[in-house]
């Protein structure tokens, strides 16, 4: 059961206590890399990054500076010989809203787990999502990907719903590992990705601006109706790129199929298959069929039915014939 929370009150309280950037980092970061320490009476945030993201980590510390006592420190990453850089905020009752809306305690292990839900998502804006993108996002070609592998399908759906509310459309994809585990991630479509990046570029940290570097957008025309449209991966792969109109899609599919069948090798393959099917155990099939019919006719009930059908058929043919003769003679007159 989710706790019942009054969102408007929380928003009001947050706005009076934090800056807009702090709220975005708290909410978007919690969805991403930030660990939320809920063990004590009051909540604190713990941030940890690879040494390559030092500047980004310091930037985060600056955002939270009112609540940070010790600046980011280098710590050895156990056993790997690499270094991490991290810091944590002080525990503060002001952060407890995170415990109310963003996490839930696992009843078995007692651990606090992140739990993306509608209340949390309702507070997430573009700024918050840009922090999430910097933490766990990447560009897959021209598409924005949120590596939401940590969350379940239902939680991913909630996140995607919020993105759709903000005006972007995308899909949840499944990634299957060799050991059978399933993970999910979210990808926005080509146009939405561009929109998202344009709208969030102002929030990007300079070290992570490469995530905003999209290749140039190409335009092509629909092969059927000629309408100008943004080229997507689907268009590049298909021979007859079509717009989203069903008639265009249908026609494009038909043309592609025709081309496929026109190729001599495909034609030969198709004919060969058809021939094989036709001649495969032909005699055997015929023999079996004859046998079956013979056995069936031995049943008097079936026999009567067959005879009745034959009579009906003869009658129908006769009637048709008469009708035809009448029509012909009627035409002459
Ligand atoms: Zn079209």
Describe the structure.
The chain has 333 residues and is α+β, with helices and mostly antiparallel strands. The protein is built from 13 helices and 12 strands. The strands form 4 sheets. Strands 1-2-4-3 form a 4-stranded antiparallel sheet, with helices on one face. Strands 7-8-10-9 form a 4-stranded antiparallel sheet. Strands 5-6 form a two-stranded antiparallel ribbon. A hairpin with a 4-residue loop joins strand 3 and strand 4. The longest helix is centred in the C-terminal third of the chain and has 33 residues. The radius of gyration is 34 Å and the shape is elongated. The model has no long low-confidence stretch (mean pLDDT 88). Zinc ion binds next to loops.
Quick structural gist:
This protein is α+β, with helices and mostly antiparallel strands and 333 residues long. It has helices at 7-17, 20-31, 54-63, 97-101, 118-123, 126-136, 153-165, 190-200, 233-237, 246-262, 264-279, 282-297, 300-332; strands spanning 35-37, 44-50, 73-77, 82-88, 103-105, 112-114, 137-140, 143-146, 170-176, 182-188, 219-221, 228-230.
Helix content: 40-55%
Q: Which blocks of ≥5 consecutive residues have pLDDT under 50? A: none
- According to DSSP, the number of beta strands is 12
Order of helices and strands: HHEEHEEHEEHHEEHEEHEEHHHHH
Bound molecules: zinc ion
Shape summary: elongated
N- and C-termini, Cα separation: 87 Å
Provide the descriptors you would attach to this structure in a database record.
333 residues; binds zinc ion; 17% strand; 50% helix; alpha+beta; single chain; 4-stranded antiparallel beta sheet; elongated; 13 helices
């Amino acid at each position: 059961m989710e706790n019942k929370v009054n969102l408007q009150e929380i928003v009001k309280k947050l706005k009076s206590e934090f800056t807009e950037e702090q709220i975005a980092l708290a909410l978007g970061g919690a969805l991403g890399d930030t660990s939320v320490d809920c063990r004590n009476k009051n909540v604190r945030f713990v941030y940890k990054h690879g040494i390559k993201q030092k500047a980004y980590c310091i930037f985060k510390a600056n955002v939270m500076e009112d609540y940070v006592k010790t600046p980011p420190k280098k710590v050895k990453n156990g056993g790997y010989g690499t270094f991490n850089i991290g810091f944590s905020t002080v525990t503060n009752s002001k952060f407890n809203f995170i415990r109310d809306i963003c996490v839930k305690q696992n009843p078995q292990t007692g651990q606090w787990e992140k739990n993306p839900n509608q209340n949390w998502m309702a507070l997430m804006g573009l700024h918050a999502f840009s922090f999430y993108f910097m933490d766990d996002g990447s560009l897959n070609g021209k598409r924005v990907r949120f590596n939401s592998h940590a969350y379940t399908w239902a939680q991913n759906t909630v996140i995607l719903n919020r993105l759709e509310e903000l005006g972007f459309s995308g899909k949840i994809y499944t990634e299957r590992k060799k050991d059978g585990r399933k993970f999910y991630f979210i990808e926005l479509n080509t146009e939405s990705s561009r929109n998202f990046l344009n709208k969030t570029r102002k929030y990007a940290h300079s070290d992570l601006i490469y995530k905003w570097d999209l290749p140039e957008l190409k335009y092509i025309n629909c092969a059927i109706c000629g309408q100008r449209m943004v080229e997507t991966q689907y268009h590049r792969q298909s021979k007859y790129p079509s717009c989203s109109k069903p008639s265009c899609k249908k026609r494009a599919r038909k043309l592609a199929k025709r081309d496929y069948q026109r190729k001599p090798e495909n034609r030969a393959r198709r004919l060969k298959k058809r021939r094989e099917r036709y001649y495969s155990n032909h005699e055997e099939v015929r023999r079996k069929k004859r046998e079956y019919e013979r056995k069936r006719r031995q049943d008097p009930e079936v026999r009567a039915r067959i005879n009745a059908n034959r009579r009906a058929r003869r009658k129908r043919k006769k009637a048709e014939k008469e009708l035809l003769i009448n029509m012909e003679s009627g035409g002459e007159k």
